[in-house]
Write the structure tokens for this entry.
Amino acid sequence: MNASRKTAFAALIAAGLLWGTTVPLSKVALGWLAPGWLTVVRFGIAALVIAPAARRGLRAALTPAVLLSGAVGYGGSVMIQNTGIARTSVSHAALLVGAAPVLVAVIQALWRRRFAPPLAWAGFAVSVAGIGLITGNHGGGASLPGDGLVLAAVLLSSGFTVLQERLLPGRDAAAVSAVQFLGAALGALPFAVTEGVPTAPSGGVLLAVVGLALAGTLAPFTLFAYGQTSVPAEVAGAFVNLEPLVGATAGVVLFGNPAGVPQLIGGAAVLAGLALSALRRPGRSARTGQDGQVEGWPTELVESVSGWPMAVPESSVSGWPEVPAVPERRVHAWLALPAVRKRGWLAVPPDLGC
């Protein structure tokens, strides 16, 4: 594992831990703000804070596609999630988010014909089993309608995670986050105005809102976007499993949600599943599926090199099929492809492990 991949994994771990604070903080903040207004304030504050730091990359990131992705992927999913959190327990809402890695992997397989390795699927299954153990016991304010809304939000967010991989190449991750935060706030505003004017907050609730905007939004979303620049979406999504573990613990400790042996075993399973889904077998050579696609390579890359002359030194990509050497003027077009990064004169898929 090279240095950039290690840094990406560290960023994803930090993002997952910080995201674990969002459900508890949202539960407190919803005591003051309605779901729409909480979304507007949360992402509005985050956008204002990050924009100056990301100003150099804002022009490249400020596009209708990035704004719309923020409005739907962040604003829409979080607004639905807020509505669900208001109707269920903190532990249930946090743990249901653990379905995200599986949904990301399924969307990748159905939409983009990219399949996670068998070991990753095993990790997803272990995590889901752990979540099932934890959510099997009801109580603590949990409800079926609230759980359903949270799951709907997770589905929307999972689709956004897959889409994000197409938006990041060639752009600064912080600048993309700033524009998407702005899009989220603007997208939620029309719904917020129908909820009425918020009343004056108390000190504790105001702190929860500020903490949600900074520690629960600005930091983790930016770290996650950075991590996705070097890690495939189906693997990055697995680190979302840290969120339900942290959130469920906060629900038990701070909100008095029920806990027992099933919850403890389930929490251990979530961590074990996360570890499995992040592993990569060393020295793995490329294999092709039934359709001839090289596993782990984006379809667009395989199609783009079909029929090209092969001219890559074996030492560059040991054990992998040769890919074409291309002039520098052609590389920029390859960088627009998902999960592809530049390496010298070549565009190399990030999961080569080099």
Observations:
- Residues 3-278 form one domain.
- The chain is about 65% helix and 0% strand.
- The chain has two domains: 3-278, 299-352.
